[in-house]
Amino acid sequence: MLHVDPGSVANWIDQELLKAHRTPGGHRRVASEDLVAFLREHRIPIPPELKTEPTRILIVDDEPAITQFITRTLAGVYPDIEIVEAHDGFRAGQLIATLKPSVVILDLRMPGMDGYEVCRLIKSQKALAETDVIAMTAYPSPENEQRIRECGARVCLTKPLDTDLLLEEVQASVGA
């Protein structure tokens, strides 16, 4: 299923990288949700048979031209992924709660609820713990990057976006 040697999986379990239990006969068993969490954490592609919900990406930016550009870019590469747009932090919060996206591409500066607050909201909810946040900003600085990473974002990209880098980061997040 993972296209790795079974010994590798045994090593991951023995090193306590992959949560598992043993049967009375000594065989290792891994729950599917633990395997999916491990694969996401280590950016290993998730086999289709382990995906239970459609992959969703939420793009949040107060500039519709940017969300539309990102949507077109991603839809061209990932036609099977559901892509949703929000243009403010409040709407993003509503969509995050109902859709439970796999990935949120999030602008830092927005009126009302900013990207930092949205990221904290995502990472504070247990049901969203596995959601990857890819932040973006037109005002890059070491302070902004450190602050958003502390809020739980995996990476912070600079606007204007390098589409190749964006696609690389989305691929790392969705494992497609």
| CATH topology value of the largest domain | Rossmann fold
Helix residue percentage? 40-55%
In which order are the strands of the major sheet placed?
A: 4-3-5-6-7
Query: Given this structure, which CATH class of the largest domain is correct?
Result: Alpha Beta
Percent range for β-strand residues: 15-25%
Structural domains: how many: 2
Please name the fourth-level CATH homologous superfamily of the largest domain. Answer: Response regulator
User: Could you spell the SSE succession in H and E letters?
Assistant: HEEHEHEHEHEHEH
Mean pLDDT: 91
Quaternary structure type? single chain
Report Rg. Answer: 18 Å
Distance separating the two termini: 15 Å
Proper CATH architecture of the largest domain: 3-Layer(aba) Sandwich
What does the overall shape look like?
elongated
Provide the structure class. alpha/beta
Number of strands: 7
Largest sheet: 5 strands, parallel
Report low-confidence residues grouped into runs of 5 or more: none
Tally of helical segments: 7
Secondary-structure map:
Layout: H1 6-14, E1 21-22, E2 28-29, H2 32-41, E3 56-60, H3 64-77, E4 82-86, H4 89-99, E5 103-107, H5 115-124, E6 132-137, H6 142-151, E7 155-158, H7 163-174
Parallel strand pairs: 3-4, 3-5, 5-6, 6-7
Antiparallel strand pairs: 1-2
